[in-house]
Amino acid sequence: MMSETEAVIWEFIRRDLSPADFEQWVYSHPELEQFWGKETYLEVISSGFVQDGHVYEVRESLREWMERYIQRVCDCVTWESRQVLFEVIGSGFPEAKEYLASKFETVRSRDESSGLVSCKGCQQKWYFAISREFLDYYLLRLSEEQAQAIINDDKWPADFDDISYGPLKTSQTGGGNKSVRSVLQRLRVPLGFVTAAVFLIFAHPSRLSLIIGFPLALCGVAIRAWASGHLKKNAELAISGPYAYTRNPLYFGSFILALGCAVGGGNRWSGLLLLGFFLAVYIPVMQAEAEYMMTLFAGAYPAYARHVPLFLPRLTPWQPDSPGRQQSAAFDRNLYLRYREYRALVGLLVVFAILGLKAAF
Ligand SMILES: [Zn+2]
């Protein structure tokens, strides 16, 4: 069984306990000096708990300390309150299913793809739901009251009601245009298809427009591919790779891709339609996501947002002060495959094959 002390320290490490509350807890528990040893204790109390970089460093060194000296009862004690299982166990659906069955007990099923489970190690209750899009397990840490509301009154959290639309939750984005945003988010894929069809029907490609448009569009695909290998969805704020230049390299890549298609299409009006659609849909989406990220990564996001533009990239990569942030900076090929980012390349080839046929006949 995990001690109360360990539980609180993990709560702070995984960002469920604010730096201020943790600081207060540390000061009211002088026995921690003995628990951590003098060096670590001094490091913690001298942190100040105000600056993002310092808080980050304390979290990381406590994480290291816990992993080294304390036998963990389970994995879930290290997870944030909202998790995609893939991001914490690093493998896909069949393994995730097996993992969940071995480490958790089902307390109550809601339907075939969601339910309430309890960790066999720490008894923490989690609500899980399987996304229809990627077959990912989404997990939500539940308070004792939330778990009881499910068990007694069949009252389920609404958090994952729309996970088939991806991890962005419109209900958490705040601001006044929720319904407009939510409609746009739901319609952006079908609307995109309609726009693409109109674009292709009215395109007047020439050899020259294809020669200029294709490499441009290919650059867009490359930017997206690069970004996908650095993106850990909600598990970690991505600031490496193209994320050091723009906060939205995936959308920026899509924009370059759309621009390349617009040029390749050779028809000014259908090109403008394509770009207009893109800006009308993605600018509100980017703003909503920025608000969401601000709540998800309240510690790290403000500094990131101050230095890295929302959309148009800066010329030099941003380097955060704390070197620890660079740890997961390498491109991860598995993520590229995982997000099925190769679909962008396939889409590009299909569009240019059609444009090529139109130019030839
Ligand atoms: Zn646990």
Description:
The chain has 361 residues and is an alpha+beta fold. The protein is 56% helix and 8% strand. It has a 5-stranded antiparallel β-sheet, sandwiched between helices. A hairpin with a 2-residue loop joins strand 2 and strand 3. Helix 10 (207-228) runs antiparallel to helix 15 and helix 11 runs antiparallel to helix 12 (268-296). The chain is globular. The chain binds zinc ion. Zinc ion binds at residues 74, 76-77, 119, 121-122, 124.
What's the structural blueprint in terms of helices and strands?
Elements: H1 4-13, H2 19-27, H3 32-36, H4 38-45, H5 52-69, E1 82-84, H6 85-89, H7 93-103, E2 104-111, E3 114-119, E4 125-130, E5 137-141, H8 144-153, H9 178-202, H10 207-228, H11 249-265, H12 268-296, H13 301-307, H14 333-338, H15 342-360
Antiparallel strand pairs: 1-5, 2-3, 3-4, 4-5
Helix pairs in contact: 1-5, 9-12, 10-11, 10-15, 11-12, 11-15
Zinc ion (ZN) is lined by residues 74, 76-77, 119, 121-122, 124.
